[in-house]
Amino acid sequence: MTDNTKPSAYKHIASHTFEEFIEMATMFHNYPAPGLLIGGYMTAEAISYMPEGTLYEAISETSWCLPDAIQMLTPCTCGNGWMHVEDLGVYAMSLYDKFTGKGVRVWLDLDKIDADSEIRTWFLKLKPKKDQDSDRLRHEIGMAGNAILSVAPIEVNKKLLVKRSKGSIAICPVCKEAYPSKYGSTCLACSGDSPYATSSSQETVLYPLPEKIRTVATEDAHGKEIVHDMTQIKPGKSKGAAFHKGEHFDVGDLCRLQQMGRNRVYIEEGEVGENWVHENDCAKAFAKGMAGEGVLAQGEPSEGKMSLVAAHDGLLRVQSDRLYAFNSCKGVMAASRKGWTRVKKGDEIAGTRAIPLYLERDLFRRACNTLEQGPLFDVLPMRKAKTGILITGDEVYNGTIEDRFEEIITNKLTEYGCTHHKTIFAPDQREAIRDAAQTLVDEGCDLIITTAGLSVDPGDVTRHGLVDAGARDLLYGTPILPGAMSLLGKIGNASLLGVPACALFFKYTSLDLLLPRLLTSAEITRDELARMGEGGLCINCKPCHFPHCTFGK
Q1: N or C: which end of the chain has fewer CB within 10 A?
Q2: Measured between alpha carbons, how far is 101 from 157 in angstroms, rounded to an integer?
Q3: What is the domain extent for residue 55?
């Protein structure tokens, strides 16, 4: 062989001979793929530009072969998070200082590859793989080494300099496995992103039935026990169970069944076994687990569904993440009124059921697991607060204009049975506002509502005076229109609500969404306020239909 075909003529890859790297590639990658061999030269080239002692991380701009070369020659791996695969479809890679973000990018440069090169043929797929000359390709790679590469300095995006962290850990309510809570209320697999195929019974709309359940013609059902409630619908007139589980078909039922379009019915021939749960049993178990404070699971299932009703007047609280987790389970459902809706004793607030007639025990258990975190629904009683009103503003205090806030606030308080203890008027002076707020606290008010002085004007010092009076846990600004400048917090033992001046013009504002919550035992957090942005826009319908509209929903 000529000198330029001898193995000794091949360029080293870092400290390894070309042949040694081929063996390493075979062990690591199962095959010394051309892309992996070139990737070895690319990685070695990048390393040569990094100052000794530098802690660096890597970026591969393709998911093909190149990441393995990086993992073979550097400390950067997928597992330790020091290698980032940004699949841009480009055969290039970078190493960069993990603290400064500065480094080098290396790429396979077509301008440095001969037109008749087998490397170009392979890289651009100019021939089918079976027609490529693999021996010549490998030889050209070994001879070229870093000569077909180009290098340029780079600085990576700052987001790549942030230390990787799983964050807080949660237990998935469906599968009971631990996962990073940043992924949501359930793990990604239980949210539908699992890479694994599930059994057909979990994926299909054709849910299986126990072996002991079979179908018979209605004329052959005489004397047989009815397996489930059978619904009869009279369009525009009625809907309800015409036949109930546990009853028996009589000879006179044949005509009725045919009128309902039921030419075949289910019958049970023996015990269905422990691997199946009847829809009624599912509904009862689900309803029991969902019902919290002030919620009753009403009666027995009807047509496979259980209803949950309010045990007393109050405000419905829905644990949205838990409801989502439950509804993410196969073969079950729960539907409710919108959370934070005002309800009366006896109102239906939710309903739940299994989708198939019989639910497989494993699916039943997974759904029940989501309810172990706590109930989904509560009806919180609303206290009849002793309320003090603090109206600020020089123009009202001095009598320049007539106050209208007191009437607006007291009318809304009356709707909730609250008592109006006192109204104090104060000028736009923080000391006067401080003293007025302290007076209302000292006189035992457990709800203090302030008005105006909450915008960005230099004379708006209501917040300053309230802070001087000892207001704490303050939340200023809400994603609600009208009412963005609202203020929430505590002062003494009282709840605090600051109402912006927009309530003088608009009939319904943030006041109407926040006041009911303040009358319950529930805390309003910044996270809950943030969630109010969806539905937080009042579009001022004419005529107004609040609360039977989208505002606050």
Answers
A1: N
A2: 7
A3: 3-161
